[in-house]
Amino acid sequence: MELFLINYNTHYEIEQLSRMFFRDLTVTKTDAVPSLPAENYVLIVNKGGAFDITVNHKGQLYTHSLTIDPEGAKEEMQLCTAAYLLYEKATGTSLPWGVLTGVRPVRLMRNLYKSNENIQNVINKFKTEYLVSDEKIKLCTDIFDLQKPVIENGRPMDYSLYISIPFCPSRCSYCSFVSTSIKSAGHLMAGYVDNLCEEIRYTAKKAEQLGLNLKTIYMGGGTPTAITAPMLEQVMKTVQECFDLSKVEEYTVEAGRPDCTDLEKLQIIKKYGADRVSINPQTFSDNVLKAIGRNHTHRDFIRCVNDARKAGFKSINMDLIAGLPEDTVEGFENSLRGCIELGAENITVHTLTMKRASNLVIKNEEHHYDDVSKMIEKNSILAEYGYQPYYMYRQKSTVKNLENVGFSQSGHESLYNIYIMEEIQTIISCGAGGVSKVVGPGGEIDRVYNYKYPTEYIKDFSAILKRKDEVFDICRQYGYQKD
Ligand code: SF4
Fold it and tell me: Measured between alpha carbons, how far is 437 from 446 in angstroms, rounded to an integer?
């Protein structure tokens, strides 16, 4: 499908929306209507205060002339709504999130609520202006209600610490994270861990000088348990020595891969103060695990969960992915029920994302994933077992434009996940691929990036400490320091 935009420069939203219907979209921007193909194009002509929209879908024409309402929503939003209705008519497809292309629909709801102070007005806007389905509106309002006390309890000088260990036993075919296989980068691990510990010590010292309050710690990556047990102990011990963990409300370590996580490592994690782990089956189907390049079976996963319970963990998250190659709706339901039976306190259901950085995007096409919506519908089973949705985010290029949702048993909601996804608390990141986000008093966000890959992180480590200084300078500028 080709999108022709004539005399229109503000095109981000309309381009994103069009891509949701037509994944192979190409875009041409000109100031005069060019010669058009015989079929499969969208033509949008900006006439100043009005737009002519033409959709040619498989030779069939659909047209609409839109006059912008100066009292109405933003011009681009009005254009998106009109285009959406034409796309829906042409393709016979509705999108559960309507014209919303953003990553954080709950935050949008909260911001509208803040300016409107009436949740019913906000719900109406989601329904009539953004064309969001009733089911997704309910998902948003449930999460919005559950997050409310967490958000109201936040204080400006609170922060969370993210620690990145960007190594994995092998690379999953759908992965687009900064993560290196230990087969190719194992020799970097010892040097990386030494530098990481130094960055953690530096961060702790600076945060203490300002008087910031550490609320949660999240160690992710990659897979932190991919490093050796002594290296893991080195990092965990450093964290314990640097921070007063008695004041930390939540400490999570990703022990995502059963093929590198054993009782010894889980005991180390527990011994040094973490109280929550994430062990991720992704699926309970062994043929699917093989298809995505994970070197473990679902039995390995169950062994790993039993080890975590033996080590004393009372809060375990399990990640699943809907839409993996070779998976079926029944297979997905079986995985979901498997996590419930194992007593997961949190279950996070992701929808597969076709990111360019992953290997999977090269091999598969969107039409292979027609069952994904049906898989996501299976999430309703979770409510029967007492799980409530408590955070959500969307990603570009997610199959069927669906969402990722964290479900939790009451009292086990991960604060860190709420903070990071809703961008309501400062997160200070250590390690390669880490991004520190300082949240200002008015909700402003300043980002400071660490180097992405372990090689550059090790090679130019002094630059990392300078970037940390930048993070704390920003905190100071916002007045985040003790008198
Ligand atoms: S375990 Fe996670 S970070 Fe590691 S390769 Fe797989 S998807 Fe990527």
Answer: 6
**Angle between helical axes of 105-116 and 415-422 (0-180°, round to 10):** 70
pTM metric for this prediction: 0.90
H-type alpha helices, 320-397:
329-341, 360-363, 372-377, 380-384
Does 146 share its domain with 114? yes
Q: Residues 19, 112: one domain? A: no
Is the separation of the CB atoms in 320 and 348 below 8 Å?
Answer: yes
List per-block mean pLDDT (blocks of 10 residues) for the chain, which spans 483 residues.
92 88 90 93 95 96 95 90 96 91 89 87 94 96 96 92 95 81 90 98 98 97 96 98 97 95 98 97 95 91 98 98 91 97 97 62 50 91 98 82 93 96 95 96 94 95 96 97 84
Nearest atom within ligand 1 for CA of residue 257: 1
Return the residue matching tokens 């095109």: 11
Ligand 1 contacts CB of residue 177 (under 6 A): yes
Map tokens 């891969």 to a residue.
Answer: 257
Q: Which of 43, 62, 91 delimits the end of a domain?
A: 91
Residues 132 and 215 in one domain: no
On whether the CB atoms of residues 306 and 344 are closer than 8 A, the answer is no
Question: Any idea what the Cα angle at residue 357 is, between residues 414 and 226, rounded to 5°?
Answer: 55
Question: Which of 302, 297, 250, 299 shows the shortest CA–CA distance to 273?
Answer: 250
51 shares its domain with 16: yes
Domain that holds residue 26: 2-91
- Number of domains comprising the chain: 3
Please state, in angstroms and as integers, the Cα–Cα distance from residue 480 to each residue in 64, 443, 472, following that order. 52, 14, 9
Ramachandran area for residue 457 (φ above 0: left; ψ -120 to 50: alpha; else beta):
alpha
438 beta partners: 446
Nearest residue by C-alpha to atom 8 in ligand 1 = 175
User: Among positive and negative, which fits the CA dihedral 404, 410, 411, 412?
Assistant: negative
**130 and 13 in one domain?**
no
Do residue 211 and residue 261 come from a single domain? Answer: yes
Q: Where are the alpha helices (DSSP H) in 273-371?
A: 286-291, 298-311, 329-341, 360-363
Residue 172 Cα to ligand 1 middle (Å): 6
Mutation choice for ligand 1 from 170, 257, 358, CB with most ligand atoms inside 8 A: 257
Boundary residue ending a domain (61, 91, 121): 91
Residues 213 and 280 in one domain: yes
Any atom of ligand 1 within 6 Å of the Cβ of 279 = no
In a domain, 339, yes or no: yes
